[in-house]
Structures are given as C-alpha cells and as structure tokens.
Amino acid sequence: MTLTFKRFLGYWLPVILYCLLIFVQSSFPSPVASRGVPMADKLLHLLGYALLAALFFRAHASIRPEAPLRRTWVSSVLFTSLYGAMDEFHQAFVPSRSADAADLLADTAGAVIGAGLCCWLAPRWPGSLKKSRIDKSPKFL
C-alpha cells in the first residue's frame, strides 16, 4: 500500500508532532509542579508514552492493515521505547535534567499499555479491520 500525502497527514504527522512536543518539553528544566508529588514524573512518562504508542500503533496499522495485530503491537512498543531511549539520551545534555533508567522503564511500560490497549480495542472499532486480521490476532491481552 502506498503512503499518500493524505494518509501521511492523517496517520504519521500526529506521531511526528507528538515526538517533537516531547523533544521540546524535555529540552527545558523539569516542571516544578511534579517535584513535590512522589512518582508524578514516572506517571507522566507512563501516560505520555502510552499516547505515543497508540499513535504509532495507528500509524503502523495504516501502512499494513493486513498484518497481524501482534506484529503491529510489537513494532509500536519497539519504536516508542526507542524514542524514549533517545529522549533520555537527549536529556543527559540538558541542564538540570538527567538520563534516568527508571524514566525509560516508565516509557516502555507506557508503550506496552498504550499499544496493548489499541490491540485490544482494534477489533472493536467498526470497519477498522478486515475479518482475516482479527482471526490471525493472538489472544494475549
């Protein structure tokens, strides 16, 4: 399936813009609001990267709608976790920020949850998937 400009705008532009938003936000010092609340930073990472994984899932499914859901889930988690790792590396060079393995773990957990939720919801979206794709998908969630 070819990637048309309209399809790009609808599926991949949101991924790119959200990645850009994450990059810009992580270029600034840590928000003061989350400093007083325990684990607020990890929760924000989890939620933010769950959304990124959902966007990746949607974009990957637009390219290969016939692919099994498991493959789309894996690629979404992989790309989201890779972006999380690159963002943690980037934060190592930002004053008052640091690269944190716990943040990367929260990013990956968010990716698993976000893509997993999409994988679970995808067969329930009307007209979104072919019957053959639903039959091939594993029942792992």
Major β-sheet profile: none
The arrangement of helices and strands along the chain is HHHHH
Termini separation: 28 Å
Helix coverage percent: 55-70%
How many structural domains in the coordinates?
1
Q: What number is the mean pLDDT?
A: 85
Which strand-content bin applies to the residues?
under 5%
The number of helices is 5
What integer value in Å does the Rg equal? 16 Å
Question: Which stretches are low in confidence, meaning pLDDT under 50 for 5 or more residues running?
Answer: 129-135
Number of strands: 0
Q: What is the approximate shape?
A: globular
Secondary structural class: mainly alpha
Structure description:
With 141 residues, this protein is an all-alpha fold. The chain has one domain (5-28, 37-136). It has helices at residues 5-25, 40-63, 69-91, 101-121, 131-136. Helix 2 crosses helix 4. The longest helix has 24 residues, at 40-63. The protein is globular. It starts with a helix and ends in a 5-residue tail after the last helix. 28% of the residues are buried. Mean pLDDT is 85; it is low at 129-135.
Note the topology:
Layout: H1 5-25, H2 40-63, H3 69-91, H4 101-121, H5 131-136
Helix pairs in contact: 1-2, 2-3, 2-4, 3-4
Question: TL;DR?
Answer:
With 141 residues, the protein is mainly α. The protein has one domain (5-28, 37-136).
